[in-house]
Known about the structure:
Number of helices: 6
Radius of gyration: 15 Å
Order of helices and strands: EEEEEEHHHHHH
Helix content: 25-40%
Distance between the termini: 44 Å
Shape: globular
Strand order of the largest sheet: 1-4-6-5
Number of strands: 6
Largest sheet: 4 strands, mixed
Structural class: alpha+beta
Amino acid sequence: FLVYAAGIGTSAAGELTSCHGADVVEAELTHGTTSGYYVPGLRLVVLNKTILNTQAKAVQNFILAHECAHADEAVGSDELAADCAAARRGVQDGWLGKTELIQICAHIAKLGVDATHPPVNVRCANIRYCMRPPQVEAQHLTPLNPGWRMAQHQ
Length: 154
């Protein structure tokens, strides 16, 4: 395992290296199907090197930024808000553009849909929406479609 201390960090190569408010652990989870996850009680992000080491740098950055966003109380367990925070971080730091969005969406398409993780079309539309420059009057995280769960169960 590799452990990174909490804090904000970006390497000279433009890759994210740490989280604000959470520690990061890289693990080789050979039987895992997830790229990473956040453990709230421990304020810990676990990244699955087995999966992430085969992905583009933008995908690796996005997954870390997404999981780090869960450490923010304003985001919590909201997956669309975490995607939005990661997208805004990527645009701000310069590692997320149209090409990288395609890479990220291709990766998300491989992940499962469950009670908290919307389908790839919802998530990628939300990410694309959040990549837009923020409006002066709306500086907070605003997921595109927060009611997706209700729509799919009707």
